[in-house]
Amino acid sequence: MRTWRDEIVKKFVNQPYSLLLVNDRDFLLNDEEILQQLRENEYEVIHFSDSIFIRYLYESQLKEKVKKNQIKLIFFSNEENHTYFPYDFLQNGYYIELKINELFPKFSSGIVKQLDKEVFDDLYSAHKHYQGSPSDKETLEYIVTHVYKIVHELIDSEVELYKLLLSIHYEQKQLPLIVQQFLIEKLLDKDVFVGIPLKGLITSSSYFFQYIEKQWATFVHQLMELKEGSVLEKSPLYLAHPFSDPDVRRLMNDLFAEGYIRKVKTNVSYSLPTWMKHGVEVDIDGSLHEKFRHLHGKIMEQITSASRYKDWMNIMELMAEYKCSVLNTNKQEYESEVNDLFRQVNEKFEKWMMESYHSLTSLPPIPKPKMVHHIPQFLASKRGQNEKIALIVMDGMSYVQWNKIKNYLKDKGFSFEENSVYAWVPTLTSVSRQAIFSGNFPAVFSQSISTTAKEESHWKTFWENSGVFKQYVSFQKGLGKEDYEKEGIAAFKRPNIKIYGAVIDMVDQFIHGAVQGEKSLMSELHLWLNTDYLARLLTDLHRENFTIYITSDHGNTESIGIGRISEGILVEQKGERVRVYTDAILFKDAAKKIDGISWTGVGLPKDYYALLAPYGQAFVNKNERIVSHGSISIEEVIVPFVKVIPSLGG
Questions:
Q1: Looking at residue 286, what is its pLDDT?
Q2: Which of 98, 330, 349, 452 sits in a 20 to 30 Å window from 307, CA-based?
Q3: Domains of the chain: which residue ranges?
Q4: Pair 319, 348: CB distance under 8 Å
Q5: Hey, is 581 helix, strand or coil?
Q6: Residue 613 gets which letter from DSSP?
Q7: Is 550 left (phi over 0), alpha (psi -120 to 50) or beta?
Q8: How many angstroms separate the Cα of 645 from the Cα of each of 233, 417, 527, 584?
Q9: What angle do CA 596, 597, 603 make, to 5 degrees?
Q10: What is the DSSP code (8-state) at residue 8?
Q11: 464 falls in which pLDDT band (50, 70, 90)?
Q12: CA 505, 406, 512: angle at the middle one, nearest 5?
């Protein structure tokens, strides 16, 4: 069956030109399957976002190959017109425009442009059967019903509203703003929803989960206050509440197991219906066993079909909840199970990384960032006029540690809108953190790739190029070791600071001092969180009207030493999970001797070669247990990118 992707790819098949310049103002190439198909047709695809970098890359590595027809090259831009490309490129290349109205001519292009590409498969099928006009109103009505499968006329009770909201937020459906606004408008007209904060519940997953957690706690406590001997399932309170609906409570059980909402802690649950005990914490061991069984089964189910970058992001979130919960129990049997699962996941993830990671580097930074260097580009594109932004990089923080930090901060009243991004490989601080603050591929900062000394300069240059003068931008690293003092935070030293970049490197310090592996790390992290350094910093940033984001440059993983490698001065950089070479011959020779993974070098400087340790292994003394980073395990590569938002009461 022909798909919308086929319509795009056919424009490039059998082209006689070595250089193609593509105007993609509708972000149609923002799709890893299309990019993979183009590579299968022997195209190198590069997003044209930084003219200086592209010029450098073209002149130094690509120009001669294009002239000799040794490579087929696609540069694509999301700008409005073709003049964005340099004149000499236009003279020597072939220009192609991609237009969304050519794919969906019967729909309003203004509506379709606002939809996520995730729904384009369903949209393409629905388009064939559309008989309405191309007006915005008719197009939107049809798409909401036939693509998003939401029949708003049938949402006429709190039960139906809960079902809708649970399907949206738990299944992580990306409803575009225009669909959200459509639903809010339709539901606000219904008297049954008077007093319910529809806007927050529909537009924000974080808001919804906070809301439903409070509703659940109230529901449990109200039932427990009924007089002893009452048949709770027959009480008006129980029968009238949406939680009593079988479809709602089935989804609620998954929310508890996966850590979306917290259970109600109580010493008494004997009188509650059996299904409610999934959301009440009394028998801790039994509750944990059920949770771990659920998470294990769901992760195993998802890795069998994982093929896209978003699939692995979802899996990492589940794995973080699983492992963090297991480490909190300190029980050996659970640790063995979760470690076996992580090995199975990483066996498949490493294979995916070798085959598909390359495609990520060609994706644009909006509507959401996919890689860490996209983060400042995303922030600049979304920043409102005079909006103050703070980006806090928790150096070395994996998703597992974020899970612990998140739960601590939730207890302090914070909430979050969570996303994920991919770190640069090798997952070293000097590579991936520098990519964050420069907003660029590592190849651009080749002269400083082994140091972090240029980060402040990169950060200020990026924002100056984005229209923010350097005097309005501040940068600070090495935070977290000292007692928190507001006076020591650079964001507050001048009233005109609009952009603040900060590095808290406590997690990275705990990593390199974790003599008993991840248990030591989590124990040290717990002690540090209790100093309230992070909570006080976030509170002060909120009070000063900063929009706050938290991310990490790379994660970490526990490994066992396979033996140190003595190569003297031949190796440019000696990492515990990676060996970096600047000479191709030495690199190839080492790859024959060492049981490692030869990395593809995508996005890296020309003479930068990385030999990576396989999962669970490190280039340290034999049988030495360490926590480290540098390679391509899912824990090292996929990291959180989180917006900190006010709590319901804030």
A1: 67
A2: 98
A3: 4-98, 360-557+635-645, 559-626
A4: no
A5: strand
A6: P
A7: beta
A8: 37, 7, 24, 47
A9: 140
A10: H
A11: very high
A12: 30
Reported as a pLDDT band with limits 50, 70 and 90, residue 419 is: very high
Distance CA 220, CA 262 (A): 13
Which candidate, 170, 121, 166, 168, places its Cα nearest to that of 147? 121
Q: Round to whole Å and give the CA distance between 576 and 630.
A: 7
Where b means 16+ CB within 10 Å and e means fewer, 75-92 reads bbbbeeeeebbbeebeee
Locate 49 and state its tokens. 């976002």
Residue 330 has pLDDT above 70, yes or no: yes
- The answer to whether the beta carbons of residues 74 and 45 sit under 8 Å apart is yes
Whether residue 48 contacts residue 76, with contact meaning beta carbons closer than 8 Å, is answered with yes
Chain centroid to Cα 602, Å, comes to 20
Residue 224 — φ and ψ, nearest 5°? -70, -20
String of DSSP letters for 408-431 = HHHHTT-EEEEEEEEPPSS--III
CATH class of 360-557+635-645: alpha beta
Give me the helix-helix angle, 32-40 and 332-360, nearest 10°.
Answer: 60
User: Which residues, in sequence order, are bridge partners of residue 23?
Assistant: 77, 97
Residue 416 token pair: 């979050």
Q: What span, in angstroms and rounded, lies between the C-alpha atoms of 449 and 430?
A: 6
**Where do runs of H (alpha helix) occur along 189-283?**
198-203, 205-224, 236-240, 246-257
C-alpha span between 427 and 337 (Å, rounded)? 26
The span from the CA of 459 to the CA of 474, in Å, is 9
> Helix 309-329 vs helix 399-411: angle between axes, to the nearest 10 degrees?
70
Helix, strand, coil abundance in the chain, percent, nearest 5 = 50, 15, 35
Q: Are strands 638-645 and 415-422 parallel, antiparallel or unpaired?
A: antiparallel
pLDDT-based confidence at residue 564 (cuts at 50, 70, 90)? confident
Sign of torsion, CA 570 572 576 578? Answer: negative
- Cα–Cα distance for residue pair 154/475, rounded to 1 Å: 52
Per-residue pLDDT tens over the stretch 386-407: 899 999 999 999 999 999 999 9
Q: How far is CA 553 from CA 223, 258, 394, 424, in A?
A: 46, 25, 7, 8
CB 475 within 8 A of CB 460: yes
CA distances to 11, 43, 359, 373, 607 from 362, rounded to whole Å, are: 18, 12, 6, 12, 21
* 3-state DSSP assignment of residue 271: coil
CA angle 358, 359, 361 (to 5 degrees): 75
Q: Counting Cβ atoms within 10 Å, is residue 565 exposed (0-12), middle (13-18) or buried (19+)?
A: middle
Instruction: Give me the helix-helix angle, 284-303 and 246-257, nearest 10°.
Output: 90
Q: Of 146, 210, 645, whose CA–CA distance to 416 is shortest?
A: 645
Quick one: tokens of 622? 């034999």
